[in-house]
Amino acid sequence: MRYVTVNLLLLWILIGCADPNLERPVIEDLGMVGVMGFDYVDEESVKVSVTVPQPAQDAQEQVQRFTTVVDSPHQAIMDISTLTEKTLTPAQLRVLLFSEEYARKVGLWSVLQNLYRDPQVGSNIFIAVVKGTVEEVLTGTYKDKPEINIYLTELLTPRTMTAFSPFTNLHSFINRKTDEVSDPSTPYLEKMDEDSIKLTKVALFKEDKMVNSIEPEEAKLIEAMKGKKKLPDMTIKVPSADGKEEELLIMKFVNTNVNVTANGDLNNPEIFIHLYVRGSIIDYNGTRYLASQDNRTIVEEHASKYFEGKVISAIRHFQDIGVDPVGIGDYFRLKNARGWSKEKWIETFKRAEITTHVETRIVSTGTIR
């Protein structure tokens, strides 16, 4: 009985003397990681960079930046925690950045899978690929911009003028990678100078590895084929009235509508894409009098051919590299559920006969003549 009493007394002393901050740090002791980035080192290791906002108003720097070389993202959190007075947590993680080299050589799956299973990490974290290294992007000064965590979050938040981007988050990337039809895509960022970062392209993935990219003009039409109604303004090239040179016009999209027809035959696949575009001309450097219905009709026909060329070029590019970011395979899976696989679909997609028709309607020319 005496030994039981002594043991209980010792247990009470140990519990009573435990430091509550070791068990559950108070909010002031936490360092909220806002951005986490990954640069290629080799097949086993990765250079991880993180940014941590400084809440103290008298802090000399708004953001702390840390870099370490580790084998997993959570290992980076533990390692960097020894470099700062804060206990780092990914609970407020908002952006994941991957260098193009890392995305091409290693792929995103291992990192994303590890983070996805962590209950502290949300599924709405934005994902993007960067040109060069992530470390270089995160160490920029970016004068007259918000601190880097807010700057990148706002840059990757969907807006009308950058609606060509898929604005991929953690959940949607994993969903696209694991489904049996489509492939992921992400925004592609470039550091333009010490003062700005620009969303320049869309990165294309096969499974979880980046294989190529597409320019914004094609990416806008790809988003239309995914069903997006509102697109950013687009520059269109049309032949001049005398046919000797090209004219430029900028169209503001009012709305778009897409209809895809597929025969469902995996042996002789045929796909027809009909895209309907309504928009207003907001800028034009040509000589045609656009108040004339005849001239508007001519411009509409040229614009339709221009769009058709962009759509076919993008789709054939997807066929060549074996990816389906649009999700066209859904139109075949409905009729071929038995024995279906993504690999089988991609082989079918590569040899599919694809035709398209774009119907353009100019609903307004404003004060342009």
UniProtKB/TrEMBL annotation:
<dbReference type="InterPro" id="IPR046953">
    <property type="entry name" value="Spore_GerAC-like_C"/>
</dbReference>
<dbReference type="InterPro" id="IPR057336">
    <property type="entry name" value="GerAC_N"/>
</dbReference>
<feature type="domain" description="Spore germination GerAC-like C-terminal">
    <location>
        <begin position="201"/>
        <end position="366"/>
    </location>
</feature>
<dbReference type="InterPro" id="IPR008844">
    <property type="entry name" value="Spore_GerAC-like"/>
</dbReference>
<keyword id="KW-0472">Membrane</keyword>
<keyword id="KW-0732">Signal</keyword>
<dbReference type="InterPro" id="IPR038501">
    <property type="entry name" value="Spore_GerAC_C_sf"/>
</dbReference>
<comment type="similarity">
    <text>Belongs to the GerABKC lipoprotein family.</text>
</comment>
<keyword id="KW-0309">Germination</keyword>
<keyword id="KW-0564">Palmitate</keyword>
<dbReference type="Pfam" id="PF05504">
    <property type="entry name" value="Spore_GerAC"/>
</dbReference>
<dbReference type="Pfam" id="PF25198">
    <property type="entry name" value="Spore_GerAC_N"/>
</dbReference>
<keyword id="KW-0449">Lipoprotein</keyword>
<feature type="domain" description="Spore germination protein N-terminal">
    <location>
        <begin position="26"/>
        <end position="190"/>
    </location>
</feature>
<protein>
    <submittedName>
        <fullName>Ger(X)C family spore germination protein</fullName>
    </submittedName>
</protein>
